Amino acid sequence: MKVDKIQLINDMFYRAFESLNVTEMSKVWVKDEASQVIHPGWPVKQGWKEVEDSWRAIFNNTSYMEFTLTDITISDMGSWARVTCVENLRSVAGGQESNGRVMATNLYLLKEEEWLMMHHHGSALPIR
User: Fold this and answer.
1) pTM
2) Which of 34, 40, 86, 112 could disulfide-link 71, Cβ–Cβ 3.0 to 4.6 Å?
3) d(CA 44, CA 51)
4) Cα(10)–Cα(61) distance, integer angstroms
5) What residue spans define the domains of the chain?
6) Could you tell me the CA-to-CA distances from 16 to 73, 77, 127 in Å, in that order?
């Protein structure tokens, strides 16, 4: 089922995020100018080189990340898909643990029968 494959690639994205490993992250992304990421508080990063560099910067400054996703909605649009969710995040950076909530929109493109991420946008939410 197509929705299951979209859920699988979304799960793979968050496992790559938790791995803090750019090589793992690169496995789930389209690697061309269509790639785009907007991290909370950052300017838009466009194209795979800028996107990859942004992950490297995050991973180099973080020692731990754990995501619990809630409010997941998957929209199958044919050759592309949209996943929205709330990222309930626990992280450690600079020896400091923090908890946060981020509303995320993830767009995936079906390329040669493989789903790949082309856009991730995270917007910080208040802690409940």
Assistant:
1) 0.95
2) 86
3) 9
4) 23
5) 2-125
6) 20, 24, 24
